[in-house]
C-alpha cells in the first residue's frame, strides 16, 4: 500500500527492511541508482508497493510510456503513417493501418489537425514514440480512433491520471448533472463532448478548475457553474 | 514538438461554433477583458501586468548622454521589446506576427510622443536624458500587445529620474538619496485595445491564446485618456467592414477608461 | 561596520519564492533575496534542433536576459555558469535527443544575481520534473575594504568590495562546491572564510527550497488522500 513521504532530488532513499533482506527492488519513475545508493531524481511523494518503489510528482510535459492512452493531433502525413503531436519531445508515428478494420484499400484518411485517441505501443528514449488507434490484439477500436466534435483542452499530467483512474471526484459531480462524453489522455489532454457548446464549455471549465478541490468542493463548484 | 502546432480542428471548430452563439471558451463575454492585475515596484519604473495567463514585465531606466545632432534640445527614448523563448516554446524564429507585436508596442510609445522629450533636456547640445524602456514577455497567453502597452505606460508613469539643477553652463545631477527623484513628463497615456475577428460578424475583445491562433484578422485601436485616437492598426488578415471598425472603436473608448482607472489605482497603491 | 540596510555581516536578505506561476512553461520559479529577483522558466524535455542534437543525452540551453538593457558579456558569462553547473546535475542521459531549455529573466538586480539565478533555475527544474542528481543552492560573499566579510551583498556593497565570491553547492555541501566564481584581490584566508560562510548559507537556502517544494508536494498529495 501507499507509503507517503515527500522527497526532493538528491534525497537518499531509505529502503529499510527490504534492503536488509537482500531482496531485489524495482525502481520506478523518479528514482535512480548510483553505486550503493538509491536516490530520488524528482520531487514528489515516495510510494512503495511491495518491491516496487517510485516517486509521484505532478508535471506538465509528457514523456511517452508504453501502453498509455493519449490524445494527439495529426500534424503531417507520410508514406507509412501520420505524425501525431502528443506533447512529448518527439512526435509519434501512427501507421496508416492502425485503425479498426483498416486495409490497404479501405483505410481512414485523416486531415492535418485531426484529433485522435490512441494507445502508445512503442516508447523508449532512443526512438520516436509510436501509437495505434485500436487494440491490435483484438482488432477492435475500443474507443480509440478519431475524435470528432466536442472540445479539447490541456491539463497537468497529475490531473489527467486522477481523471483516468477515477479518483477525481469532478467526473462524478458532473455526471450527476449533465450527460457528457470524455476521452482522457495521460499526456495531459482531455477531449470532452456535451450537448451544445454551453454545456461543453461548462464541463471543460469544471474539470480544469477541479485540480485542487476535494469531492465536496467539486460538487459545490459544479452547482455554481450550472447556476450561472 | 517544441514549436506550437496551432489549434486542432476540434478546437477551431468548437471555438467558431460557440462564438456564433456568443459563448467564449473561457466563459467571458465577447467584449470582456480577462482579469487585469497591475503590480508596481519595488523599484521605480518596474511594472508587471497580468491579463490572466499573459504576463509582461516592463522596466524603465535612464542615463545621461549626448543628444542626437539634429535634435540638440530633446532627450532620447530607447526601446526594446523582444519576444524571448520564456514566453512560449520554440520562440526562436522571428515570425511575422512576433515582429508585428514588438513594432506595435514601439510605435505606441515612441511615435505617439507620449513622453515629453524636451523635458528630458539637461544642457542643450551637450547633455540629455536617455530613457530606456525594456519590455519582457514572460508568458504568452494571447494578446501580448494590450498587456505590453499597459505595462509600458504604467512603468513610464511609475518611473522617477534623478533631479537636476542647471546653473548656467553646469548641470548638477542629484543623487537619489539626497534629493527625491522626479517623475517623467508624460503628455498622455496611449493604451492599446485589440480585437480578434473570425469571419462574418464574429468579433472578440482580448483574444486568449486559442482565439489568437484561430482568428483570421486582428485589429488594434490605440486611444488615450482624453478619448483621442492615437493609432489604428490592422496588418494583413481578411478585409474588415468599416462598421465593425466603428463598433470596435466605441467599445475601446469604454475599455480605455476602465484600464486607466486600474493603472491609477495601481500607481497609487505603490506610491509608498 | 554598518551595512546600508542595517543587516549583520552574516545575515542574508529575506528569501522568497513562487513555483509554477507561468502557464506556458513546463516548470517555473521566481526566486528573490531581498530586492534581487529572478524568474526562471524551463521547457523540457522538448524537441531539439538537429545542430544541437546529442544522441545519448539531452542538450542543455540557457538564455538569460538582464532587467534593463540588452544582454552583455557578463550576462553571457552567467549563462555559461548556469549551463555548466546544471549540465552536470541534470540526468541528461535519461532523455537523449531532446532539449532542456532554461530561460532566466532578471527582474531586479540588487546584487548576488548570479546566485539568485542558480537558485531560481534549481526550483524551476524541480517544478518541471526534470530529473536532477541533486538540488543546487548558491550564495555570495563580499570582502569589503578593510577585510570585513559580508554575506549576500547588495549591488552597492559588491561594487565597493575588494573581492566578491560566489559558490554553488549540491545537497551535500561537504562534498565540495559545484561552482566557484571569485573576482578581485584577495588572500587565501579570505577565500576560505568566504567558502565556509557560503557553505553554511547554501544549507539555509537548501532548507528554504526544501520547504517551498514540500509545500507544493503537500498541496498535490492532499488530493490523492482526499479522494
TrEMBL record, chain A:
The keyword Secreted does not apply. Residues 150-195 form the K Homology domain. InterPro entries: Exosome_RNA_bind1/RRP40/RRP4, KH_dom_type_1, KH_dom_type_1_sf, NA-bd_OB-fold, RRP40_KH-I, Rrp40_S1. GO terms for cellular component: cytoplasmic exosome (RNase complex); nuclear exosome (RNase complex); nucleolus. Pfam families: KH_6 (PF15985), RRP40_S1 (PF21262). One of its GO terms (biological process) is TRAMP-dependent tRNA surveillance pathway. Keywords: Cytoplasm, Exosome, Nucleus, RNA-binding, rRNA processing. Signal peptide: none annotated. It is found in: Cytoplasm; Nucleus, Nucleolus. GO terms for molecular function: RNA binding. Belongs to the RRP40 family. This is Ribosomal RNA-processing protein 40. It comes from Coemansia biformis. The lineage of its organism: Eukaryota, Fungi, Fungi incertae sedis, Zoopagomycota, Kickxellomycotina. The gene is RRP40.
UniProtKB/TrEMBL annotation, chain B:
GO terms for biological process: exonucleolytic trimming to generate mature 3'-end of 5.8S rRNA from tricistronic rRNA transcript (SSU-rRNA, 5.8S rRNA, LSU-rRNA); nuclear mRNA surveillance; nuclear polyadenylation-dependent rRNA catabolic process; rRNA catabolic process; TRAMP-dependent tRNA surveillance pathway; U1 snRNA 3'-end processing; U4 snRNA 3'-end processing; U5 snRNA 3'-end processing. Its main location: cytoplasm. Keywords: Cytoplasm, Exosome, Nucleus, RNA-binding, rRNA processing. One of its GO terms (cellular component) is nucleolus. It is found in: Cytoplasm; Nucleus, Nucleolus. Signal peptide: none annotated. Residues 33-162, 188-254 form the Exoribonuclease phosphorolytic domain. GO terms for molecular function: mRNA 3'-UTR AU-rich region binding. It holds the Pfam family RNase_PH_C. InterPro entries: ExoRNase_PH_dom1, ExoRNase_PH_dom2, ExoRNase_PH_dom2_sf, Exosome_comp_Rrp42_subfam, PNPase/RNase_PH_dom_sf, Ribosomal_Su5_D2-typ_SF, Rrp45. Belongs to the RNase PH family. PANTHER family: EXOSOME COMPLEX COMPONENT RRP45, EXOSOME COMPLEX EXONUCLEASE RIBOSOMAL RNA PROCESSING PROTEIN. This is Exosome complex component RRP45.
Automatic annotation (TrEMBL), chain C:
SUPFAM superfamilies: Ribonuclease PH domain 2-like, Ribosomal protein S5 domain 2-like. Its main location: nucleus. Keywords: Exosome, Nucleus, rRNA processing. One of its GO terms (cellular component) is nucleolus. GO terms for biological process: nuclear mRNA surveillance; poly(A)-dependent snoRNA 3'-end processing; rRNA catabolic process; rRNA processing; U4 snRNA 3'-end processing. InterPro entries: ExoRNase_PH_dom1, ExoRNase_PH_dom2, ExoRNase_PH_dom2_sf, PNPase/RNase_PH_dom_sf, Ribosomal_Su5_D2-typ_SF, RNase_PH. This is Exosome non-catalytic core subunit rrp46. It comes from Coemansia biformis. The gene is RRP46.
Amino acid at each position: 500500500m501507499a507509503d507517503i513521504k515527500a522527497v526532493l532530488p538528491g534525497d537518499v532513499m531509505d529502503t529499510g527492511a527490504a534492503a536488509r533482506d537482500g531482496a531485489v527492488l524495482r525502481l520506478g519513475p523518479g528514482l535512480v541508482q548510483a553505486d550503493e545508493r538509491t536516490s530520488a531524481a524528482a520531487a514528489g511523494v515516495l510510494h512503495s508497493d511491495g518491491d516496487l518503489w517510485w516517486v509521484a510528482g505532478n508535471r506538465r510535459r509528457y514523456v511517452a510510456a508504453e501502453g498509455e492512452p493519449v490524445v494527439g493531433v495529426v500534424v503531417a502525413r507520410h508514406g507509412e503513417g501520420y505524425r501525431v503531436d502528443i506533447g512529448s519531445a518527439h512526435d509519434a508515428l501512427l501507421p496508416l493501418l492502425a485503425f479498426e478494420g483498416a486495409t490497404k484499400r479501405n483505410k481512414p484518411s485523416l486531415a492535418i489537425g485531426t484529433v485522435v485517441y490512441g494507445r502508445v505501443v512503442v516508447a523508449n528514449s532512443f526512438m520516436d514514440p509510436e501509437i495505434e488507434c485500436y487494440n491490435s490484439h483484438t482488432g477492435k477500436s475500443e474507443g480509440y480512433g478519431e475524435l470528432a466534435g466536442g472540445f479539447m483542452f490541456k491539463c497537468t499530467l497529475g490531473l489527467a491520471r486522477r481523471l483516468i483512474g477515477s479518483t477525481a471526484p469532478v467526473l462524478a459531480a458532473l455526471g450527476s448533472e449533465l450527460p457528457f462524453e470524455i476521452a482522457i489522455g495521460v499526456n495531459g489532454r482531455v477531449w470532452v463532448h456535451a450537448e451544445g457548446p454551453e454545456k461543453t464549455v461548462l464541463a471543460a471549465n469544471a474539470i480544469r478548475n477541479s485540480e485542487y478541490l476535494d469531492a465536496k468542493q467539486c460538487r459545490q463548484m459544479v452547482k455554481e457553474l450550472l447556476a450561472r | 514538438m517544441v514549436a506550437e502546432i496551432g489549434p486542432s480542428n476540434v478546437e477551431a471548430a468548437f471555438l467558431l461554433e460557440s462564438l456564433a452563439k456568443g459563448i467564449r471558451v473561457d466563459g467571458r463575454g465577447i467584449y470582456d477583458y480577462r482579469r487585469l492585475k497591475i503590480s508596481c515596484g519595488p523599484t521605480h519604473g518596474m511594472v508587471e501586468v497580468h491579463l490572466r495567463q499573459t504576463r509582461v514585465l516592463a522596466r524603465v531606466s535612464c542615463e545621461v548622454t549626448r543628444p542626437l545632432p539634429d535634435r540638440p534640445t530633446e532627450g532620447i527614448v530607447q526601446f526594446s521589446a523582444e519576444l524571448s523563448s520564456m514566453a512560449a516554446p520554440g520562440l526562436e524564429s522571428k515570425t511575422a506576427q512576433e515582429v508585428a507585436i514588438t513594432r506595435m508596442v514601439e510605435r505606441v510609445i515612441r511615435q505617439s510622443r507620449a513622453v515629453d522629450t524636451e523635458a528630458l533636456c539637461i544642457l542643450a547640445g551637450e547633455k540629455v536624458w536617455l530613457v530606456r524602456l525594456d519590455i519582457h514577455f514572460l508568458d504568452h497567453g494571447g494578446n501580448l500587445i494590450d498587456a505590453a502597452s499597459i505595462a509600458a505606460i504604467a512603468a513610464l508613469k511609475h518611473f522617477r529620474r534623478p533631479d537636476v539643477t542647471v546653473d548656467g553652463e553646469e548641470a548638477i545631477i542629484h543623487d537619489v538619496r539626497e534629493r527625491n527623484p522626479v517623475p517623467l513628463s508624460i503628455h498622455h497615456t496611449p493604451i492599446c485595445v485589440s480585437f480578434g475577428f473570425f469571419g462574418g460578424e464574429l468579433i472578440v475583445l482580448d483574444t486568449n491564446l486559442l482565439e489568437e491562433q484561430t482568428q483570421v484578422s486582428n485589429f488594434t485601436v490605440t486611444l488615450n485618456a482624453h478619448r483621442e485616437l492615437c493609432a489604428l492598426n490592422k496588418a494583413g488578415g481578411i478585409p474588415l467592414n468599416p462598421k465593425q471598425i466603428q463598433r470596435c472603436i466605441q467599445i475601446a473608448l469604454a475599455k480605455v477608461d476602465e484600464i486607466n482607472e486600474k493603472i491609477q489605482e495601481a500607481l497609487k497603491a505603490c506610491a509608498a | 561596520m554598518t551595512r546600508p540596510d542595517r543587516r549583520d555581516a552574516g545575515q542574508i536578505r529575506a528569501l522568497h519564492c513562487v513555483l509554477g506561476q507561468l502557464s506556458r512553461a513546463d516548470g517555473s520559479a521566481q526566486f528573490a533575496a531581498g530586492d534581487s529577483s529572478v524568474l526562471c522558466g524551463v521547457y523540457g524535455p522538448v524537441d531539439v534542433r538537429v545542430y544541437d542534437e546529442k544522441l545519448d543525452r539531452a542538450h542543455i540551453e540557457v538564455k538569460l536576459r538582464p532587467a534593463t538593457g540588452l544582454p552583455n558579456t557578463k550576462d553571457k558569462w552567467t549563462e555559461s555558469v548556469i549551463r555548466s553547473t546544471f549540465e552536470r546535475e541534470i540526468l541528461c542521459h535519461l532523455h537523449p535527443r531532446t532539449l532542456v531549455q532554461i530561460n532566466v529573466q532578471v527582474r531586479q538586480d540588487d546584487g548576488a544575481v548570479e546566485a539568485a539565478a542558480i537558485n531560481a533555475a534549481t526550483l524551476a527544474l524541480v517544478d518541471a520534473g526534470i530529473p536532477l542528481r541533486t538540488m543546487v543552492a548558491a550564495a555570495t560573499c563580499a570582502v569589503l575594504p578593510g577585510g570585513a566579510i559580508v554575506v549576500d551583498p547588495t549591488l552597492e556593497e559588491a561594487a565597493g568590495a575588494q573581492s566578491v565570491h560566489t559558490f554553488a553547492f549540491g545537497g551535500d555541501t561537504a562534498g565540495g562546491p559545484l561552482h566557484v566564481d571569485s573576482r578581485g584581490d584577495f588572500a587565501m584566508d579570505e577565500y576560505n572564510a568566504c567558502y565556509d560562510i557560503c557553505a553554511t548559507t547554501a544549507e539555509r537556502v537548501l532548507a528554504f527550497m526544501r520547504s517551498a517544494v514540500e509545500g507544493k508536494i503537500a498541496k498535490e498529495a492532499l488530493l490523492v488522500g482526499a479522494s
